[in-house]
Recover the amino acids of this structure.
């Protein structure tokens, strides 16, 4: 068990949120390359010791900042998908949000998790835990929960594949567009099955 003196104190929690916001803003601009506690401290206008007072470690701070960036991305994505009448349309509406803004930073987080799963695996697991409920919420309300979870997991895996293809192809969207056509057909069939 770790001990964080700010835990439980309203003043301490407010300061912790403020520090996390400042570090998250830095990540959104500068990415994860060369992330360190000292860099985070500079971005937050404090010292690395103060950050360790409020967070368990540099990895804890990094995971929390990446999670905060993801929450912003998820919120914008769901907003973009809200007016689409079909599941395929809702998933398609997510894509521009998933590939804009801070998406390159979140792609770096997945890369770190792949490169060093022991140290940074939480970045990928955290993403899955954040994205799946959002994708489940896009499924038709009449579906059984297990079916929603299965379809959401398939959508997440497919979109991650599309992101990797887009990033490794130098931004050429041809493969992704073909993939979206096939994904749309599969989701339309799934939705038609009731």
């Amino acid at each position: 068990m770790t001990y964080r003196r700010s835990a439980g104190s309203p003043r301490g929690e407010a300061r912790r949120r403020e520090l996390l916001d400042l570090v998250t803003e830095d990540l959104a601009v500068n990415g994860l390359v060369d992330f360190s506690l000292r860099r985070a401290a500079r971005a937050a206008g404090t010292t690395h010791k103060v950050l360790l007072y409020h967070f368990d470690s540099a990895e804890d701070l990094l995971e929390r900042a990446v999670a905060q960036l993801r929450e912003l991305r998820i919120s914008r994505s769901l907003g973009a998908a809200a007016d689409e009448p079909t599941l395929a349309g809702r998933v398609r509406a997510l894509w521009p949000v998933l590939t804009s803004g801070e998406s390159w930073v979140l792609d770096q987080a997945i890369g770190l998790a792949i490169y060093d799963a022991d140290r940074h695996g939480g970045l990928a697991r955290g993403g899955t835990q954040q994205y799946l409920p959002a994708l489940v919420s896009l499924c038709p309300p009449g579906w059984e929960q297990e079916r929603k979870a299965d379809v959401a997991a398939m959508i997440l895996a497919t979109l991650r594949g599309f992101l990797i293809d887009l990033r490794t192809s130098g931004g050429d969207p041809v493969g992704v567009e073909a993939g979206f056509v096939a994904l749309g057909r599969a989701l339309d069939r799934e939705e038609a099955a009731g």
Summary: The chain has one domain: 10-192. The first helix runs from residue 10 to 30.
